[in-house]
Amino acid sequence: MSRVSVAVAITTIALASAVPAVANPSGGSDAVAWQASVDVPDAYPGTAVDWDVPITLSDGTVLRANVFRPANADGSPIAEPTPVVLNLTPYTKLLSTLASVAMEDPSVGPVVEDLGTTLNLGAPLDGITELAAPASQLGKAFGLNRDLVQNGYTQVVVDVRGTGFSHGQWQILGPREQQDTVEVIDWAASQPWSNGRVGTTGVSYSAINQIQAAGLRPRALDAVFAVEPGNDLLRDIVGTGGALGIGFMPAWLGLVNGLKWLPDVQALIEGRFDAQWLRDRLADPATKIPELLEVITAPTVDDVSPGALEVAQDGPFYQDRQADLESITVPTFVFGNWHDIFANSEPDIYNRIPVEPGRKQLVMGDGYHAVTGTSFGTPGHPPNIAALQRAWFDRWLRDMDNGIEEYGPVTLLQQGGGWTTTERFPRAGVRHQKLFLAAAPSGSAGHAAHDGRLVSTPPVDARRLTVTPGLRGFCSREGAQGTAGITVLLGSVCSKDSRFHEAEALTFTTDVLTEPIVLSGPINVHLNTALDATDGFWSVSVNDVAPDGRSTVLSSGSLVASLRAIDDSLSEFTADGDYAEAHPSLTLATRQPVVPGEPTSLDITTIPTDAVLAPGHRLRIDVYAANVPRSLPLGPMTRESGLRPQHLELDPTAPSFVTLPTVG
Q1: pLDDT (tens digit per residue) in 51-63
Q2: How far apart are CA 587 and CA 595, in angstroms?
Q3: Which of 34, 83, 520, 552 could bond 427 through an S-S bridge, CB–CB 3.0 to 4.6 Å?
Q4: 3-state per-residue secondary structure call for 180-227
């Protein structure tokens, strides 16, 4: 097929222009008022704090809470009851309080606010700028927000059981911990300083537990503001595609387990040592770390203990930690990022909550877990997170008619374009288009292990392509995603350009586009593979290739070959019967070891995305045999694979192809 005919075929799936916004993603005049409410002098001059308030739960376990109340000029708390904003954290409330104190310090706060300008270092150090610029956005949502407190809210920050100064053993979002959250909400509503109306807020873990609690319908809960929540934790980051999130999970477990051992120093000084706290820590000194080490190092599946197997595959452990989204009835704001570790779940949480749009909101940026809110509050961008949070609680906890329900309801950073507002995600009018992987060179990826093409009809000639596992993924956008954004420090040469990583990839690229293409939703890649072992690992990415050759990842996915079994009841299909979104079972019961040398088909669905590819750009699919540090197969699977080269069979009778969710 000629280049012209391929371009024509591709552009039949394109829009004449990007999808127009139906509202203003910056919030317009309403957002000016929201920001003004944050910027004007506080209604109350101070904050009164009750430290380490005990909350005794129904099973006798005692949690510790810091209670921050609006205060008069003399430091005394105001007499009037107020709405309550609640945050439950595993990172010790001491840490979030210190972060807040730093943000409020007149010598420190402005420095953090201006980090993006101060550290605007340019390439190759631009990763420092990317990581630092939105620090204040995340910091204000992480824990204590004095703007809320000094404008008529009481904020309560609680250590979840088994962490910080709280008693008990850490359950990692398990059923008992979920019940704790419900009981703490009810406790907060019944205190004399509360008017009975409670909202929840927080980032990451503190976003997940509030979504879980909302599904249990606490009587007093009136609103949720969840920044970067997850729900399908196995597929999000713990075991994406059946492989461990090696760039995040060990460090995260180490962090929380380390912080939970920090004692209450003031209590020690005053001779009030908490013996029960120590007994609980000794009973569970390193939650899930032994199991993590076991699944990484075990030579065979039979060598893995039942306790470790429980967290290594889908089943009751993860099902017990999924929120009952369909039972949520309160206004819920979900904030996420296309390259967040929980990007798989964030749009799904929004879609499944049965609350009318406006009373539920979704904002999706293109940052990472620790890099979020970049340029918010500037022209063309959403309002800053603190303004959105304040407006949300003013509306739903104080009944202020401020127009926040008219925002969105779906505000998306369209990758390759700009911020847009739409009524739904995926966007209306999605239809699926299939493009086939072909061996013939595209002429655009001479740097890759193989430069192939994406074409509109199956290739005529059969060809076997071979790819070898490697470690270049440390310098990649997938690596940045898998480390919560930390490896953006390597610079945009890694996080915004895949060419270094593509030296280990089979690449398949379209001809130059003559019209824009809009993608909205998950993308499925069907591969016809062959292995020289009984197991292997495949990773794919979908990239936007600019005229200068820069290859930017829009979305990615991965799969352990032996865990390729798909649960069709949870999958979505195109009109032609292909997978639009494949849901792998990820259980040992459905594991299918590969027969070496035999063709083996598998489907890899990427994280949902929203993107526009401009004229002059190209669409590319990258296929890898490794994706460290984003993912690493468990020890038994890695040992079986032997890290041998892997093969892609381009067979006209069993073609490999990508299914694109195009709009238009």
Answers
A1: 999 999 999 999 9
A2: 19
A3: 520
A4: HHHHHHHHHHHCCCEEEEEEEEEECHHHHHHHHHHHCCCCCEEEEEEE
